[in-house]
Amino acid sequence: MSNHTDSPSELSRRSVLRRTAAVGLLATPAAGLLSACVGGGTEEPSTSATGTKSAENPLGVATETPVEVVIFDGGLGTKYATDVHIPSYKAKFPKSEVKYSSTQEVSTALQPRFASNTPPDMVNNAGSKLMDQGKLVEAGQVADLSDLFAAPSLDIAGKTVGETLIPGTIEQGTFNGKPYVLNYAYTVFGLWYSGKLFKDNGWTAPTTWADFTALLEKMKAKGITPYSYAGANAAYYQYLVILTTAAKIGGADVLKAIDNLEPNAWKNDAVKQAATLWGEIGAKYGNKAHLGLKHTEVQLQQNQYKVGFYPSGSWLENEQSKDTPAGFDYQVAAIPGATASDKLPATGLYAAAGEMYFVASKGGNVQGGKEYLRHMLSKAGAKGFTELTKSLTVVTGAAEGLTLSPGLTSANAALTAAGAANFSFRWDAWYKNLDDECRAATNELMFQGGTADKFCDRMQAAADKTEKKFSR
Amino acid sequence: MRQGKYPFVIGFLIAPLALYGMFVLRPIAAAVQVSMTNWSGLSPNFDFVGLENFQKLLDDDKVWLAARHHVFLLVTLPVITIALALFFAFLLNMGGGTRGGMMTGVWGSKFYRVVFFLPQVLAVVIVGVIFGRVYAPDGSGVLNRFLELFGVDPVPFMAEYGLWSILGVLVWQAVGFYVVLFAAGMSSIPAEIYEAAVMDGASRVTIFFRVTIPLLMETVKVAWVYLGILAMDAFALVMVLSIDEGGPDGATTVLPVQIYKSGIRESDYGYASALGVALAVFTIIFAVLSLRGGKRNAVEH
């Protein structure tokens, strides 16, 4: 953000002093952005356009008002919006324009617009520079989606939008009792491996911890890094795995307690046991060098058959599609059971609706933003999304009739095997500071000789300092 | 003419002063104002919280860690850069010995001058990406591939020697500029002083320490201040190069990175502004102190 590239001819003492002041200014990038807003006071939000409600138009969208959508341009691309959802909206409201833009830096592009109360109508809040969703809700910038979920589905007859969704979807976007966010992509997390590598060596996916370590031992003997993740920017894949094991040992309530910032939630025995087990895996079967690698680098190594298991979500196959050799055959395994007395079955999965879409409460066309989401949640909209992104959506049965890729087929099978034993947590989206702390603590545990006790103590200390804002 | 002098002067000054006020002073004032609020950056509303953010700053371990890293850089970066730059500049200007009573540079010094200056014109982010490959923790890294030839196990540079690695890049990038600066300073030193020194039988080493350095003191001091300011920043390099943006576990964090994290990532612009104000104050104090200090030692020629 701030850098020094001054031309040599200008250096004099006076200019040095002048620059001293300038550096102070550059060093406050935040302050620069907001100078336009501070003191601007509480400008009244423009009133949002509405139309007449009818059976054809259940949300009461103003038929001639444009709607503005902003899509994150990341692993899923933007084609699903431009080729599927926008045409769908336009077909329904031919007189209304859909203003579309995409960005890789959601926060940089949109934060000033929220600060001045002129936000776009619908935002895909994602990527490493996403806005703090909890803070947005708290600031009253996000529209309540209750009426969207109660409205009839666009093309699934006889059902409301809410009824067409996989159970837990609405809850995943609920803040203090009200649904504010649509989590659209349904993501299955687990240990990913190459079907080909396993087949060639006669290996099978493990279900118990003893099988798991025995298999890792065999991989090590073959000169493959048995288990790895990227410490430089993807430590959260690993803390998700540690907490998944904790949930299997102690039940999904362990995660709920962590979400609700309950006293000593991080010091629960289940969390401690999980951290101990994974700390051993890191020390014995990890590769110290991977602390300094980025996720794409480790994923590439897996594509080159140099890494055995890699923890990730079901977007992995699509993200790696360019680098995956033919016949690699992505497969996913549920994280093996940890102990004989686990409360959840070994097939249990961290599976959750992810990829946030929300409607700004102070946009010019709030109902239009919601209507756009209704088009995304139509069967045709969801099917188009799965076709273009190889990711499942939260719309039940929308993938029916599609030919799924190997990884997605495997993820679907894992989901079926898990049955009701799927769970998730919310604290990482609610409290960004805990997310930051947990990345550092996880790297320490897995790569830098940290202990389970230290992991739990650190996280508990950070959680104790966090002010509780949400609960579930 | 004389009567019209003041309107004339004011007429020239008013536009730059207005621009300066608008785009420099006003944002600084705004930053100070925001530092005393709990503004989240996500809505126009905020509450005034007084000095609470500054209190939080004093209790924040990561801030103190970052401050220690600034002190480390503040000492090492100027010392190493200035020493290297003086040495290279001397070689380029005078390293070739005397020819006809004049000091000359080493063979090919014009070419080296360009080589040294090249890193300076690269954007910081590009430098960061390049060094990401240089420091890569396995055999794919330039340095580790080199060490492999000697049978040394791969060194996880960013993981274990993060701050030193970043210091290395900062020095690498800065040194060329100061070589040019010092070379210009050296060429303005009158030739007869060197001539006299050579006639008195002074060696190159003696000339360097007894003649060149004292006469360059003013330039060195300016370089010191400027490098000190660079040590207060280092934002882009840390963001691109380090593990987990300032990690592992805060091992390479600097104040601007903490500002970025609390502002952009955690949407706490009030606190981020308080950090920014603190950093600005430190930088100004440093600059004033180093320009004031050692003023008496100046040697004129």
Automatic annotation (TrEMBL), chain A:
The lineage of its organism: Bacteria, Bacillati, Actinomycetota, Actinomycetes, Micromonosporales. InterPro entries: Bact_solute-bd_prot1, Chitin_NgcE, TAT_signal. SUPFAM superfamilies: Periplasmic binding protein-like II (SSF53850). Residues 44-55 have a biased composition (Polar residues). Residues 41-60 are annotated as: Disordered. It comes from Catellatospora coxensis. It comes from the Bacteria. Belongs to the bacterial solute-binding protein 1 family. Coiled coil: none annotated. NCBIfam families: chitin_NgcE (TIGR03851). PROSITE patterns: TAT. This is Carbohydrate ABC transporter, N-acetylglucosamine/diacetylchitobiose-binding protein.
From TrEMBL, chain B:
It comes from the Bacteria. Keywords: Cell membrane, Membrane, Transmembrane, Transmembrane helix, Transport. One of its GO terms (cellular component) is plasma membrane. Signal peptide: none annotated. Residues 67-290 form the ABC transmembrane type-1 domain. The chain crosses the membrane at residues 71-93, 114-136, 161-184, 223-243, 269-291. It holds the Pfam family BPD_transp_1. Gene3D superfamilies: MetI-like. Coiled coil: none annotated. It is found in: Cell membrane. The keyword Transmembrane applies. One of its GO terms (biological process) is transmembrane transport. It is a multi-pass membrane protein. Belongs to the binding-protein-dependent transport system permease family. PANTHER family: ABC TRANSPORTER PERMEASE PROTEIN, DIACETYLCHITOBIOSE UPTAKE SYSTEM PERMEASE PROTEIN NGCF. This is Sugar ABC transporter permease.
